[in-house]
Amino acid sequence: EGIAVQEYTALKMKVVKWADSAKMCTDAVPEGASAYFIPATLRPETMYGQTSCFVSPTIQYGLFKISDTEFYVCSERAARNMSYQPGIFPTWGEYPQVASFSGKDVIGTVVNAPLSVHKDVYILPMETVKDTKGTAVVTCVPSDSPDDYITSFDLAKKAEYYGIQKEWVKFDDILPIIDTPSYGNLTAKKLVEDMKIQSPKDAAKLADAKEKAYKEGFYKGKMVYGDFIGKPVEEAKNLVRKQLIDAGLAFPYAE
Ligand code: A2H
Questions:
Q1: Within a domain: 226
Q2: Using the 8-state DSSP alphabet, how is residue 4 labeled?
Q3: Is 219 a residue whose pLDDT tops 60?
Q4: Count of Cβ atoms closer than 10 Å to residue 105 Cβ
Q5: What does the alpha-carbon distance between residue 142 and residue 121 come to, in Å, rounded to a whole number?
Q6: Structural domain of 33
Q7: What residue's CA is closest to ligand 1, atom 26?
Q8: Using an 8 Å Cβ cutoff, are 114 and 12 in contact?
Q9: Nearest-10 crossing angle of helices 146-157, 203-220
Q10: Looking at residue 59, what is its pLDDT?
Q11: N or C: which end of the chain has fewer CB within 10 A?
Q12: Please, what is the average pLDDT of the chain?
């Protein structure tokens, strides 16, 4: 990325029910307070189509105290970055941590997905999540992200192997959000199928598909769902972002 700044939208996905294996989290969040998973996204206009939320089963995460009533789940690296950005943590440079755990421990947790047709979604494993960018939490939009599509496909196919339930993936409920001239209204599915991407580990093909999906969606896509139907993605992106931020459901995060 060089010196370019990546302007993410950090989404607040409120925990509805922790997985049984996340006892360190239930113990650390006081009665009456809320915890949120914080995915970083570059495509806020796609949030209508969230079907799950990914963590890496092998990355270490923290639960960080924002206030007496709010706690965030993200990587320590991201919490540190957030502590040097205005309006997130109360004290500059401080990011109080109340629990530390592996992504694996929180799989099966149910969170609320702001704007999504699927109100409650599951925390699921994604092995290709990196600890070196964003928050190491990735919300899943299988209609428009080739990585999310192929990971969901793989999780649904091998649910038992991953220790999850197939229904948690919601793979049969993929919603069209953006229509594009080249790939129709399920861009990620079309690209994964046309390019014969077989697995989340097809890194080279996925990088190519991601680039194609992003360019086509951003420059030629039109919204077909939500409050901005008919508007070009280029315009809708900031409108949806502002709507989420104004409603307290997201905040700007840069790195
Ligand atoms: B995007 P960039 Cl619909 N590891 O959000 C792996 N992937 C990560 C990540 C991490 N630590 N942090 C964020 N991401 C994903 C939506 C989306 C995204 C759509 C289409 C494309 C797309 C829903 N997932 O990204 O390397 C997040 O997924 C492709 C550009 O910082 C985030 O936006 O440029 C994007 O990658 C950030 O990637």
A1: yes
A2: P
A3: yes
A4: 22
A5: 13
A6: 7-254
A7: 133
A8: yes
A9: 130
A10: 98
A11: N
A12: 97
SS3 123: strand
Closest residue to atom 6 of ligand 1, CA basis: 129
Residue 1 lies in a domain: no
Whole-angstrom CA distances from 133 to 6, 39, 49, 88, 235 are 10, 11, 23, 18, 26
Chain segment 183-215, per-residue pLDDT in tens: 999 999 999 999 999 999 999 999 999 999 999
Residue 102: inside a domain: yes
Ligand 1 binding pocket (C-beta < 6 A) is 6, 40-43, 46, 129-130, 133-134, 136, 138-141, 144-145, 148, 210, 214
For a ligand 1 pocket test, name from 73, 132, 133 the mutation site with the most ligand atoms within 8 angstroms of its C-beta. 133
Position 99, amino acid: A
pLDDT digits (tens, 9 = 90+) for 96-154: 999 999 999 999 999 999 999 999 999 999 999 999 999 999 999 999 999 999 999 99
Q: Which residues pair with 99 in a beta bridge?
A: 63
- Residue 82's CATH number: 3.90.740.10
Enter the tokens of residue 54: 């990914």
| 2 belongs to a structural domain | no
User: How many domains, the chain?
Assistant: 1
64, 58 Cβ separation under 8 angstroms: no
Structure tokens at 66: 């924002």
Amino acid letter, 121: V
**Which residue's alpha carbon is at the smallest distance from atom 36 of ligand 1?**
41
